[in-house]
Each structure stands twice: as structure tokens, then as C-alpha cells.
Specification:
This protein is an alpha+beta fold and 469 residues long. The protein has 9 helices and 8 strands. It is elongated and about 140 Å long.
């Protein structure tokens, strides 16, 4: 069997020395399938968002230089400071050094320092608002959860892609099997052509039998053309998933087709409950809803925090060094309490109301997602069971059709039948064999949907999302 279309498509052909297995296709998808590689970039995007959130805790350096020249007062000032926000109780630490020299107005005396300048250090500690959570820590928590969400999104799309690749592989195998059945049917007609012609020459059979066999040969050749086109189409569709190391599509050769479908196995109802529990544990879309709800919970916590009064404690210590006289002591400890509270607080209340509504939405979505996953597993198990039973019944039909074909052939050899009836029996056997191939393909395609339903492609299983404090 050759693929005539290969000559004009110019893709890279696979090595025909070994049978192409489903594992080979799935490995190729994991390594070189462009949509999957594009999806993996979502994790880099999430990590970039995490880095952005961490940037809100970057150390801030400040430097300022001021000078007054050619006026009544002549002075110069330099001020250097460093500030570090931390996730610990929302505390911000600061330190710095400044120096001012020259003559200053009496009301600017605080700008004057001794010769070595003034060192300072302290912290700002929120006592109510921003103590348990603030916008910095909220962004950090949501970005951390965003990485989990990206991983789960990748898993969710990955199992769909692998399931689609699996179905394309079994469609390719089925197309090859249909071509083999058509070729076998043609061989029967071509093999007996010489016998029929000799029988007509000897006067044992009428000419109509040879003509009828010629009609059967033409009909069966057209069936082969149709089967070849089906194999070509299935090969091209499979090439989107089966790629070489450079990521280019590979057209698998007909010689790589397996000899047939692997053995089928029955699926019993006893494993249904276990499969449902496995699916609920593995399916990433359910876990992703949990993560998204956790992100919304962060928004609710932040909004609830914004309803609190802003009471900050500021502590700082300054020390003067060098010579000179200033109106402050060489060392000072300063403490301040800052109170701030919007009267209506409608902005925070509105955000809290919206966040709580979204939390309720996620609860309902999680409930439905669990019910939907349960239904999908039930339907997938039912589909596999039905496909298995149908395949067994059609296999029995093929056996009966072949037996009838053999009996009709025996009657023809004895002169009790006609080639027309023999051809009908052979065509009936061919159609039953094609249905058997379709039934076997349906079984393995249904099995792929079942594996999608229980997320068996995820190994190891996705980790549950982190709990936010």
C-alpha cells in the first residue's frame, strides 16, 4: 500500500523499519506539538506575574541634593535613604543619612546637621488596616496561586490534546485495516478470473460469469481507491501530532501500520465509583476552580481589610555625628501614631460585596463541575461497554458471513449456485468486516474518551492548590 498523495505534499517521511505505536505518537506530541508547546508558555507568563508581584517588595533607594546660592541664605543639603517593605505584618523598614551645611533660616533649622551628618533608621507598623493583608501581599498571593492555575490549565489542555492524538491514531489504524479488507476482497476476484476464463473456454460455464467477475473486480478496485483515500486522509491528520525532532509533521508510511487492533477488554460496573473518585481527584478543571476561588478569597480578604481604620505606628531613631551645633540632641527616638479612616468606606464595601458574590458563583460552579465530571465518567464507561459488546457481536457476524461465503462457494463449485450469488456473499462479508473495523475503532476511541474523563494522561497527578492564610 502506497500513499500517492505523498509525492506532492513533500513532508518528512517516518522511518518505516518499525511499527508506529500509540506511545510513539503521544511522545511526539509531548515533545514537539506546537499548540502544546505554546500552552506551556502560560507557566512562564504566570512566573512573570509572580516576579512582578515580588517587585512591589523591591528595596527602594532615594538620593536628593538641594542647594541655595546667591541669596540671603547659602546652604547645601544631601539626603540619602533606603526603604524596604516586607510581608511580615506589613512592616516597612527605612534607614538613611543626610547632611546639611551653610546658614539656614530659623524655621529651617531642622535641615542643619553636624559635620558628619545625621544617621536615621526606623519602621512603620500597621496596627489595624494592612496588618493581616495589604495590596502588596494580596498581589503576591494571587500571583502564587496564578502559577498553580497555569499548571492546571496546561494539564487541562494537555489531556484534551493527547486524547485527540489518540483518536487520530486509532482512525489511522482503522483506515489501514479497511484497506487490507478491500485488498483481500479484490484478491479473491482476481485469483479466480483465470479459472473462470478457462472454464468458459472448456464450455463448463457461460460467458456471463466472466463478465460478472470483471464487474466485481472493477467494483472492488473502486473500493480500494476509496480506502486508499481514507488512509491518506487519516495519515495527514495524524501527521499534525506525529512529528520529527525538528517539530515538522511526519507522514507515517503504510508499512508502519500495526497488524491489527490490540485485544479489547471488558469494563465492568464495579469500577465505576472508583473511576468517579479518580476523576474528581485528577481532573484539573475542578482543581482550577478551587484555585480561582482562592484568588477571589484574597480579593475578599483585602476588601474586608480596607474597611478597617488605618492606624500606623512609626518609630525612628536619629543620631548626629561630628562637630557643630544644632538645636536638637545628638540622639533622638521619635514615635508617631497615624490615624486615617474614610467615613463612608463605600469603595471597600463595594469590592467586598463583589468578591463575596464571585465566591458564591465559584461554589455553584464547583458543584456543577463535580456533577458534570461524574456524568462524563458514567457516559464514558457506558460508551466503552456498548462499543465492546457491539464489536463482539459484529465479530460473530463476520464469522457467520464468512461461513455463508464458503458454503456459497462450495455450491458454486458443485454447479448449484451462480457467481452473482457468490459475489453477493463476498460483498456481505466485506461489509461486515468493514463494520467490525469500525466497531473496533469505536471501542478504542471510546476508551480514549474514557481516559480523558478520568484524566489518566496526568502523571504524576496534579498537586492540590496551596491554601492561602
Amino acid at each position: 500500500m502506497t500513499l500517492r498523495l505523498a509525492a506532492i505534499l513533500l513532508p518528512v517521511f517516518a522511518n518505516a523499519q518499525q511499527t508506529l505505536r500509540l506511545e510513539d505518537v503521544l511522545e511526539s506530541v509531548n515533545r514537539n506539538y506546537p499548540p502544546l508547546l505554546a500552552i506551556l508558555r502560560d507557566l512562564d507568563i504566570a512566573r512573570g506575574d509572580m516576579r512582578t508581584a515580588l517587585g512591589r517588595f523591591d528595596t527602594v533607594l532615594r538620593l536628593r541634593f538641594d542647594a541655595e546660592e546667591f541669596g540671603f541664605y547659602d546652604n547645601e543639603r544631601v539626603d540619602f535613604g533606603i526603604e524596604q517593605a516586607t510581608p511580615f505584618l506589613g512592616t516597612t523598614y527605612f534607614a538613611g543619612w543626610r547632611r546639611g551645611e551653610g546658614n539656614f533660616a530659623s524655621y529651617d533649622g531642622k535641615l542643619e546637621t553636624r559635620s558628619l551628618g545625621e544617621l536615621r533608621g526606623g519602621f512603620r507598623l500597621p496596627l489595624f488596616r494592612d496588618r493581616a493583608i495589604d495590596s502588596r501581599r494580596a498581589d503576591l498571593r494571587k500571583a502564587d496561586l496564578g502559577i498553580d492555575s497555569a499548571r492546571l490549565s496546561i494539564d487541562q489542555q494537555k489531556i484534551v490534546i493527547l486524547q485527540l492524538a489518540t483518536q487520530r491514531y486509532w482512525s489511522w489504524v482503522a483506515a489501514g485495516q479497511r484497506l487490507q479488507v478491500a485488498e483481500a476482497l479484490l484478491k479473491i476476484a482476481t485469483d479466480r478470473d483465470a479459472f473462470l476464463r478457462e472454464s468458459v473456454r472448456l464450455g463448463q460455464l457461460p460467458q456471463i460469469e466472466v463478465t460478472d467477475n470483471e464487474r466485481a473486480i472493477l467494483q472492488r478496485r473502486s473500493q480500494i481507491v476509496e480506502a486508499e483515500r481514507g488512509l491518506q486522509q487519516a495519515t495527514i491528520e495524524l501527521s499534525l501530532f506525529y512529528r520529527d525532532s525538528a517539530g515538522r509533521p511526519v507522514l507515517a508510511q503504510a508499512s508502519q501500520l500495526p497488524a491489527g487492533f490490540p485485544p479489547m477488554e471488558a469494563m465492568t460496573e464495579s469500577r465505576l465509583q472508583e473511576d468517579i473518585e479518580t476523576a474528581l481527584r485528577r481532573r484539573p478543571e475542578l482543581q482550577r476552580l478551587v484555585v480561582q476561588r482562592a484568588q477571589t478569597q484574597v480579593d475578599a480578604d483585602l476588601a474586608r481589610n480596607q474597611l478597617l481604620p488605618n492606624v500606623d505606628l512609626l518609630m525612628s531613631f536619629t543620631a548626629e555625628g561630628g562637630s557643630g551645633t544644632v538645636k536638637r540632641g545628638p540622639r533622638e527616638l521619635k514615635a508617631s501614631v497615624v490615624f486615617d479612616l474614610p467615613f463612608q468606606r463605600r469603595q471597600a464595601a463595594g469590592r467586598l460585596q463583589a468578591a463575596e458574590a464571585r465566591l458564591s458563583q465559584f461554589d455553584l460552579r464547583q458543584q456543577f463541575a463535580r456533577e458534570q465530571i461524574t456524568a462524563e465518567v458514567q457516559d464514558a464507561v457506558s460508551a466503552v461497554q456498548a462499543a465492546y459488546r457491539r464489536a463482539l457481536l459484529i465479530a460473530e457476524e463476520v464469522k457467520v458471513a464468512r461461513r455463508l461465503q464458503e458454503l456459497e462457494k462450495d455450491r458454486f463449485d458443485l454447479g448449484d449456485s451462480t457467481l452473482f450469488l457468490v459475489n453477493l456473499r463476498e460483498q456481505a462479508t466485506f461489509e461486515a468486516a468493514v463494520r467490525e473495523v469500525a466497531a473496533q475503532s469505536d471501542y478504542f476511541r471510546s476508551l480514549a474518551l474514557y481516559e480523558l474523563a478520568i484524566a489518566s494522561a496526568l502523571s504524576p497527578q496534579p498537586q492540590p492548590p496551596k491554601k492561602t492564610p
